[in-house]
């Protein structure tokens, strides 16, 4: 087999962006993907399983993100703004525009005065000791788990502050045709520039020395290159050596392996429920809520599946449920049917409908338990106190031969997003071209 200039392990957003950038610059690129599709944690269901279009993984463009939006423009892919109302269901009551956590201003005041990093749990237990803050602490932990899919005992407060201060709620978008339209564009461009992409090729071993590397896949196929970009999810890199998806390095890369274990990688379960009608828009729900929910975008609750969203402003009978952080980790071993039961029970409690009645209206369903997927093993990265030092180690190539990329390598304000992955992939490609 012909030896490539650069071999890339993983065909998610970061790996494909690196391949795209390098191939367009004239490098001979080979991409190896363990799964039977490209995209990684991006997976759009289009006209399949009764879903007209639904995102199993990444769904939103969170803000005016330069790399993502420029790439969409280059590809000629449209995107549209998201608009809708924020609702909360709590103690039997629906409340509109209830997204703000009570006591948030005080929390941010304390957080802005923070000088040395600490974990979320330590921060809350230090600055909010009075019993009157118990509800605030619960809400903040739930928010960090839901939005950042983080463990409150490990997540960095300075990183959360940086993210929370730069949230761009005014500019949120969905991509026409779904995120996979962007993935397909990248893959097509790689191939058009003489790059190779091989699916169903999980790498198990990486043998390397300075200026040369060879990987061996589960099917005992081997590929060689001058340089290797490791574009695997952080959860896969953190997996024990005997686990499916894990890659063994020969010789070991001790400092990098230690750095990887010090970083945080979240857990997530996403539930897609397609109904025969948008029952949350009907008169029964309007009477229950005291107001129409036809323009509802997000719904927050205290249920087992706490967060739900619609396809607003489009009126589509699709509800998406979201469970993140340690609660999702605890559900990792549940079957899809068990998760579905819990999801329907959550909706039953919120909308005062019987579970059997909801089942009768259900046209299609899909449970994405990303934490249980062997080639993903979680959602996306969150910063721990040790992440900055770990990134210093991982951002340096190993003997100018091994390079790391992925959303976990990103240090900007759009952490945990496709923008983070694309930016990291672009950066590592430039690093190779300049080396």
Helices, strands, pairings?
Layout lengths: L3 E6 L3 H12 L4 E4 L11 E5 L2 E5 L5 E2 L3 H10 L3 E3 L3 E6 L2 E4 L7 H9 L7 H8 L6 H15 L8 H9 L6 E4 L3 H14 L3 E3 L4 E7 L2 E6 L4 E9 L3 H4 L10 E3 L3 H8 L2 E2 L2 E8 L7 H7 L6 E6 L5 E3 L8 E7 L1 H5 L5 H16 L3 H7 E7 L12 E2 L4 H8 L7 E3 L13 H17 L1
Parallel strand pairs: 1-2, 1-13, 2-10, 7-17, 11-14, 13-22
Antiparallel strand pairs: 3-4, 5-9, 6-9, 7-8, 11-12, 12-13, 15-21, 16-19, 16-20, 17-18, 18-19
Helix pairs in contact: 1-7, 1-15, 9-14
Short description:
The chain has 435 residues and is α/β, with parallel strands linked by helices. It has helices spanning 13-24, 66-75, 104-112, 120-127, 134-148, 157-165, 179-192, 234-237, 254-261, 283-289, 326-330, 336-351, 355-361, 387-394, 418-434; strands at residues 4-9, 29-32, 44-48, 51-55, 61-62, 79-81, 85-90, 93-96, 172-175, 196-198, 203-209, 212-217, 222-230, 248-250, 264-265, 268-275, 296-301, 307-309, 318-324, 362-368, 381-382, 402-404.
| Structural category | alpha/beta
How many DSSP-defined strands? 22
Q: Please estimate the helix content.
A: 25-40%
The major β-sheet equals:
8 strands, mixed
Oligomer description: single chain
Rg over C-alpha atoms, rounded to the nearest angstrom: 22 Å
The CATH class of the largest domain is identified as: Alpha Beta
CATH topology of the largest domain: Polyamine Oxidase, Chain A, domain 2
Low-confidence stretches: none
What is the correct CATH architecture of the largest domain? Alpha-Beta Complex
Number of DSSP helical runs: 15
- The share of residues in extended strands comes to 15-25%
What overall form do the CA principal axes indicate? globular
How far is the N terminus from the C terminus? 25 Å
What average pLDDT do the residues reach?
95
Domain count = 2
